[in-house]
């Protein structure tokens, strides 16, 4: 059984593991160097500093997390062991105010997930926000 709650500092290691394994499972387009650089930012800056909604298992271990900036979905990562079980959908349902999300174009599984949640592509950037050659789709719900 999955429960959704606010993140706590003690969740960071499990959240990093969920991030790492989710990215390994879905971001095969990342170079090894970019993966290492992004992982360092996620581990050292993003996860310890931001607030998240976490999906936790029966042992209260984070298996997925979601980060928001107002009505924009900044991050949604589900450990591959829990994909397909409704965890991502439950996180999304816990924040009905979400209107927009940016997603890697080269991650068709994520694009499809967001389309099933009612999002449509409204724009595209050829580079990610760090200037790397990973195109980003800008999606909006309800258009």
UniProtKB/TrEMBL annotation:
Gene3D superfamilies in the cross-refs: 3.40.630.30
Pfam families attached to this UniProt entry: Acetyltransf_7 (PF13508)
One Gene Ontology term of the molecular function aspect: acyltransferase activity, transferring groups other than amino-acyl groups
InterPro entries referenced in this protein's UniProt entry, alphabetically: Acyl_CoA_acyltransferase, GNAT_dom
N-acetyltransferase domain sequence ranges: 2-141
CDD domains in alphabetical order: NAT_SF
Keyword Acyltransferase appears in the UniProt entry: yes
PROSITE patterns with a match to the protein in the record: GNAT
Alphabetized UniProt keyword annotations: Acyltransferase, Transferase
Protein name, as recorded: Acetyltransferase
